[in-house]
Amino acid sequence: MFNALPSPPQIKTLPAKSQRTYWHAVWLGSLPPDELDDTRPARRPLANINPFTPDGQALNKKKRALSKTPTWGDATPEQPAKRLRESNISRYNVEFVELGVVGRGAFGRVARCVNKLDGCVYALKRSLRPVAGSAAERAALTEVYAHAALGRHPHLVRYYSAWAEDDHMIIQSEYCDGGSLQQLMEAGPLPESELLLLLAHVADGLAYIHSQQLVHMDLKPGNIFIVRGEGGAAPDSDDGYDDDEPDLPHHKYKIGDLGHVTCVSSPSVEEGDCRYLPKEVLQEDFTHLTKADIFAFGLTLYEAGGGGALPKNGQEWHDIRDGKLPVLPNLSREFNQLLKKMVDPDPNQRPSAARLRRHPLLHPAGNKSKAQLRRELAAAKLKNELLARKLQEAARCIKSLTPNLVNQESAKFRTRSAKRLQKPRIDSNIVEIIQSVSSPLRIERRTDRRKRV
Ligand code: ATP
Ligand code: MG
């Protein structure tokens, strides 16, 4: 059958085996006859370019520099894009068993599913409407790109895979068994200790997103998830200390729903929920997008702390954005101050996610475990010992270099009240000794001056 097909001149030089493979492909209809024509420009492989990876971001910047007109393709340089229609694969029912629906959002329906092969439970988000060819396709691809570019982080919902089925997008991610923060808040305001845990975990996730030059742009209680049962057992570390660590947190907060993620350098902003949006973003000022995430996080903490449902518009909406955030009486003054800072009308005044992680509220000395304090004490003792040894060496060295000076100094000690002056004198003496090692001339000059007096 292969012999019946004409042999095009451009592949005549191919070995017989390659020719057979080629014609087999043509016959099956999977390869156009010109595919192996090396006289034509090479075809680009049909794979998307992820705009959120460092390479994609660089390409984005280049495209921006060439054309100032913002287009779909500017923010998502994936031409020729492998659109959803081209990658329809039936996996949902073949590979998974649905255990139940766990949530619905504006974009999709989320189900708890077990994978038939590995037996693990995952969350599968399926778009509500067919997205192929629609504007929603962009949001769906954005979420996939962002997940893939960000990879794994303890405070981001983990991504496993994504595919299209009947033109619906399906995203397979980690199943968060504690639900969303929104669901947790329905049971009442969180105490400050819990808000601090939320602050630590989400600030960590946000700092990571921001470090990748990306921004979330839809942070809110419905998009923060809880994973229980992680970290229950302390990592096995034989560090020689008693096993009296306080209970480690038994749950983790994780940032999810990455459908609005965009690059800081060439943003394509799809505004998130208006209840959490700062004014500057509504006014299309995209110069401080990381601080827009901080604003949304501030209002999330405020709401979780008992601030009540946030306004979508009206005077109250404006008041919050004008720096008039009501004080929450159940929270400490410091926590209220932090919330106020996070929603400051001036984005420059809002702390960065990295600064939030280092906030004193998260690292008070009183909150340290006994083991932690003991470890710090042991480290301090060791440091002291080393310094004392160095000091002795330095003193010996000085004594051998300038025996007269040391005698003068010790004579001074003998004549003054030791109790009042000895401690500070020792300190200043050390400084002098160290300075004198590096510059013996100075000692000579000082001794000269003393002689003159
Ligand atoms: P929206 O646009 O309204 O924010 P969405 O359509 O993008 O929502 P998600 O926010 O991702 O969808 O999910 C909707 C709901 O499904 C969540 O509020 C949560 O209750 C549930 N859910 C989503 N992902 C998970 C997950 N990984 N584990 C457990 N539950 C989840
Ligand atoms: Mg959501």
In brief, what are we looking at here?
44% of the residues lie in helices and 11% in strands. It has 453 residues and is an alpha+beta fold.
Explain what this protein looks like in three dimensions.
Helices cover 44% and strands 11% of the residues. The protein is α+β, with helices and mostly antiparallel strands. Among the domains are: 1-37, no CATH class; 85-174, Phosphorylase Kinase, domain 1 (2-Layer Sandwich); 187-232 and 247-371, Orthogonal Bundle (Transferase(Phosphotransferase), domain 1). The strands form three sheets. Strands 1-2-3-5-4 form a five-stranded antiparallel β-sheet. Strands 6-9 form a two-stranded antiparallel sheet. It has a two-stranded antiparallel ribbon with strand order 7-8. A hairpin with a 3-residue loop joins strand 1 (96-104) and strand 2. It is globular. 28% of the residues are buried. The model is unreliable at 1-39, 69-80, 231-247, 417-427 and 436-453 (pLDDT under 50). Bound molecules: adenosine-5'-triphosphate and magnesium ion. Residues 105, 222-223, 257 line the site of magnesium ion.
State the order of secondary-structure elements, H for helix, E for strand: HHHHEEEHEEHHEEEEHHHHHHHHH
CATH T-level topology of the domain at 187-232 and 247-371: Transferase(Phosphotransferase), domain 1
**CATH architecture designation of the domain at 187-232 and 247-371:** Orthogonal Bundle
Arithmetic mean pLDDT: 77
Tell me the CATH superfamily of the domain at 187-232 and 247-371.
Transferase(Phosphotransferase) domain 1
Strand content: 5-15%
Poorly predicted spans: 1-39, 69-80, 231-247, 417-427, 436-453
Q: Which structural category do the helix and sheet elements fall into?
A: alpha+beta
Shape: globular
CATH first level of the domain at 187-232 and 247-371: which class?
Answer: Mainly Alpha
Helix coverage percent:
40-55%
How many DSSP E strands?
A: 9
Q: In DSSP terms, counting alpha (H) and pi (I) runs of 4 or more, how many helices?
A: 16
* End-to-end CA span: 115 Å
- Strand order of the biggest β-sheet: 1-2-3-5-4
Distinct small-molecule ligands in the complex: adenosine-5'-triphosphate, magnesium ion
Largest sheet: 5 strands, antiparallel
As a whole number of angstroms, the C-alpha radius of gyration is 33 Å
